[in-house]
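Record 1 of the preview.
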Amino acid sequence: MTFSRQVLGLLAPALSLALLAPLSPAQAQATAPFPSQPIHIVVGFPPGGVPDTLARILAEKANLGQPIVVDNKPGAGGNLGGETVAKAKPDGYTVMMGGIATHSINGSIYPNLPFDMVKDFSPILWVAATPNVLVVHPSVPAHNVAELIALAKAQPGQLTYGTPGIGTSPHVAGEMFNAMAGVKLTHVPYRGRAQAVPELLGGHIATMFDNLPSALPAIREGKVRALGITSLKRSASAPDIPTLAEQGLTGFEADSWLAIFGPGKLPPDVQAKLAAEAQRVFSLPDVQARMRALGMEPIAAGPSQLAAHQRSEIAKWAKVIRDAGIKPE
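->
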């Protein structure tokens, strides 16, 4: 017997034992098909809002063989949740319900944003768009956009518009309105919609851009008057409200949008599996009906469409923010 055969003979039992030894949890997870454990979807806002609602719909309807857990991490305009996901391991077990603030606006407002809105994320699904709606207190003598513009020009700087805060979607929508209409509505920022809306209902501010789902109850009750929708097309949730674009502000579009992102450098097969299942869920007729009833427009577009939309939005809002001189609080 040669020396090499003797060595192999001595090693054979040890090799057999090694092959039969159970895998460690980390090794088992690495070799198991995705997903092999619960998936966490981070929402950078409190429970009850539109991003949270969409995340919970996905958690309820998804069929990936593992549960989806919704983690609310509110703070810093959604940036806390964004940072959590940007720094997570790119294995598909941590994703987020992001959107216009975290993935198109905040990068132009916060100079020390703890993540790159594009490089640190992998696009998964463009879920929905939510139009903003321009509403006024009933005491304001304007029943359409043209009348509001005329009133604002007759009283420069006297009409106010409230927002949930600096850099929010309603804020940049208001600054776009100022620029395109050639007027100066005075911005009054609040710390959240819960503070801004009572001020509007009480007549302390004249107008505001509000998310359509949030504003619809007050509109239907006659507590505020809707002048126009910020999407290019009328909303199926409120088809009687004309768009700003059809009232003379051609091309005006300032929708809030929601999308699912994973950490950057997500493996393509994991990204594709998450995208396919999320697209299936948000294409279900009952889910789309539920979304429209809440004032959301279903989109359910895949990673490439989401990436293109994000690039377009970043460029658009960077110009509005720069021209308006918007700075963080």
